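Dear colleague,

Thank you for sharing your sequence with our group. We've completed the structure prediction you requested, and as agreed, I am returning the results in plain text so they can be pasted directly into your records. Please verify that the sequence below matches your submission; if there's any discrepancy, let me know and we will rerun it promptly.
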Amino acid sequence: MVNEMEVMDLFQKHVENIRPSGNSNYVGLCPFHDDSKSSFSFKGDNTGKFVCFACGAKGNAIKFAQDMGEDPRPFYDKPLINNGGTAIKTQRKRRKTDLTDKAKEYWSNLGIKAEDDTYATMLLLGKDEKGVRTFPYFDEQDRVVGIKHHKSYWEGDGTLKWYGANRIHLFDEDEPIYICEGEPDKNRLGRTGANVLCSSGGAMSIPKPLPEFKKFGVIIVLDNDDAGRNGSLKCAQKIYDELGIICEIAQWRDGLPSGYDISDDKDWKEFAFALDQRYEFRPKPSKDEPQRGVIEVMSIGQLLNADFQEPEIIVRNMLQQESVSVFGGCSGTGKSWASLQIGMCIASGLPVFGYFEVSKPHKVLLCQFELTNGQVLTRTALLKKSFDKEWNTIDQNFDYQVMSKKLAFTDRWWTIDQFLSDSDGRYSGGVVIVDNLYTSMDAGIDSSNNTQLIPVVKMMGDISEKHKVGLFVNTHHKKNTKMNPIDIDDILGGAVLSRYASNVFQMKQSKLSTDLRVAMITKVRGEASELIEVPFKLRFNPDTGLFEKADVITNELLHYIEPKERWEIALAVEMKNYESGRGTDVWSRSDIWEFLSTKEGWEQTPSNETKVTRFINKCVEWGLMKKDAHNEYRIIKVELGEG
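Please find the predicted structure tokens below.
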């Protein structure tokens, strides 16, 4: 028997403002049209029969599930079949019917040649005997399974679906998917080469969102009327509920006629304006997240007696329990080396980089998607020599999840979640290191796109909370940031990732030495830090594979200056050393020329005058000199060599 609760759940999911009307009947706003008068009526029993007294939609729970893009199988039962007049066998047979020849017949009614209109031929657009436009719907094998006669009736499979979905594999991956209202609009925009889909059921009937939406991103462009505006919100919410991505919604210009759509825009100016005015949809809490919208309240006195616990600080300033920490850096800086060392320190209880305290030995799982297994083995063997005394503890606590390189650029977060679920709490209270974000995701996800990254970041949080682990995630810096001081906005993943993370640690290569890195803690939550946004040095020893924290950097910018420009630094150092014989640390332009007159090649020519001007300006910009007044400069502390 069909469960009456399942029937009620189905209607409650898609019908707003439901209220009882007696004898197991309920009324609400019709989901098939823009309804403001509660015209929709349905039975809350095991038949789920419904009718809209305004638009005429009617059927039973099976049909309603199909129209709403839900699975109809839970409602297949005798009461539904008999009372609703639905024959399951006939329906299944109808879905398998190939109507390709019929669609070609309708296409021939257009009286065109294939070469004259390849688009209409490719989609088998046509018209029936009465002159009504016909729109074929294809399955994955490009067979016509249903034909919609425009605003009339269906042949074959008329269940709710996306028009054009069979060609989604041919879409331009650099462009978003547009969702418009109706087949004519879809085809007009599609002729421009755009990626376009539409629902087979109108503005308020949304088929099941396609997984490809996550890859492309979605812009909704429905008609300029109440149904289009409400349908846009409903569509965006459903896509968010099922895929976790946020759509954009185009806005037509004020003053356009009601119902204005893509087919009305002959020169594409209004469409371009609507795209320029698009906005990011703000979703309601997802329906598949229980208690998401429920607020639990306690008195302030109860709060003091509650057993809430602050997250354990696993690595001071870098990592805490049940949270996400981000380790960002430019390519080639040694993030994988550092992550392996960090894992060994956490597993053994030794301080990270010889400085950042580890509270105690913890279980560690390294999920490595960057290096080959052989590379990890070689580096581990080298690092082992420096952890020889603690090796037994590390061996007991530190696990390496062997991964095939063939699986790089596929969604590995689901695999991590499943692995932890099958581990029976082995890593609870421990740490999972993921190296790195870019190669752990599906190739279709742009890690620089905040919208596309939302479901990935959500998955991180779910894994951290569900399995009670601290996540330490490696990620790259954005391109063209190597020559700039470290900034949290350098993180590839953008604000979505960096704002969600509890701790952010970043590292860049210093130009002063191949074995020197500039490091900075750019975010700390839940504890004080004396190093927040203070650059410091990390020295890499290639003989041991270890990074070690060194002193604070007083002038970070000097570490990103190209070698060919460093003669200014050397000259400023010489001038600083020369000060002891001058009796003053103030330099005027004439003082500088007096000093330069002792050096070969510095005759006071117009060319060298320009060179001195550039020298002074660069020294001030780099922080080597300070301008006290007009024509008065002081040379301040200069970092040399490795800084």
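Summary note from our side: The CA atoms of residues 188 and 338 lie 54 Å apart.

Kind regards,
the structure core
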